[in-house]
UniProtKB/TrEMBL annotation:
CDD domains: CCT, ECT
GO cellular component, one term: cytoplasm
Cross-referenced PANTHER family: ETHANOLAMINE-PHOSPHATE CYTIDYLYLTRANSFERASE (PTHR45780)
Protein name (record): ethanolamine-phosphate cytidylyltransferase
Species name: Aphis glycines (Soybean aphid)
SUPFAM superfamilies: Nucleotidylyl transferase
Alphabetic keyword roster: Lipid biosynthesis, Lipid metabolism, Nucleotidyltransferase, Phospholipid biosynthesis, Phospholipid metabolism, Transferase
Protein family: Belongs to the cytidylyltransferase family.
Pathway the protein takes part in: Phospholipid metabolism; phosphatidylethanolamine biosynthesis; phosphatidylethanolamine from ethanolamine: step 2/3; Lipid metabolism
GO process annotations (BP): phosphatidylethanolamine biosynthetic process
Highest taxon above the source species: Eukaryota
Start and end residues of each Cytidyltransferase-like domain: 13-137, 206-301
EC number, UniProt record: 2.7.7.14
Amino acid sequence: MSEQVENKPVRVWCDGCYDMVHFGHANSLRQAKALGHYLVVGIHTDEEITKHKGPPVFTAEERSKMVKAIKWVDEVVEGAPYITTLETLDQYNCDFCVHGDDITVTADGVDTYHLVKKANRYKEVKRTEGISTTDVLDRMLCMTRQHFYKGDKEYEVEKEHSSVMGQDKAARSPWTGCSQFLPTTKKIIQFSEGIEPKPTDKVVYVAGAFDMFHVGHLDFLEKARQHGNFLIVGLHTDPVVNQYKGRNFPIMNLHERVLSVLACKYVSEVVIGAPYSVTADLMKHFNVDVVCHGQTPVKMDINGEDPFAVPKLMNKFVIVDSGNKMTTDLLFERILIKRMEFEARNMKKEANELAFIKQVEGQLARIKMEYNASIV
């Protein structure tokens, strides 16, 4: 083997729907990138997703934009086939394909990675427990609060929703059942850039819930980043978000929102549990040059004061037009409009997974019987 071949960068392929992109997707891509040098991500079409799983929440364009913004992704391929082929890997010069250790099957119950597995061009990484697109959809459809219970209620199951999608664990697939994400400092470190602003950097600060991190947030952060070169995002606590958003918001708890925001390539640092009002102490501590806010209405603090009063007095406040009207409320409405379709999607996905598990168990039982018969 020549030195040139030995030093050839390892190109890694990942593919998927990447609908409702969350930190679980990002963590999978982070692990995949660690197995090589260059990460190519294929995204399935709306038609393929609808055929095999049910209708996606976001459009192909929105899903592509979200994946491109994940900091470990080097290249995105739109319209990737639902079943990963060797031809696809070769077309994009990828050495192997990477996927999580969960089940992915077609509408006919076929393992979508059976071809690359057979060719030994498949590697597996551990999926992030406690989060999946199905789980997130369930939370929004049920408006469950279980995901951000604290203290003595932290692991309590909501009895009133026990028969609703996402809460009846006995009827759920082991892969899509609702489980609780357990944050660790290691996970935060893995997602964090771990860098501090240089004295010459212009520091931009934004704050909010950033719940259900979506394309609206993404476009806003990209525009905010353009006002400097070091972007700090302050994330409000769950009680504070619930205070100004109402209902059962946030859908994702603080730890989940931290990882979702940290995975964005425009973000340099996150303040966990930032105060609702931007204080002079905060401005001084982080050497903030400019504070940005989107075009959504600003809700006053509990004392009735403007949360951006301090940066406004310092002439360091800017309203940013992201050019995107998507908000968490609009996303919620989008899902509710097609509630029945999404509930059917989740049920269909689980049915396919359970059928696949039963098929594999049957194959293993036959192999065991044949082996036992051969040694008699």
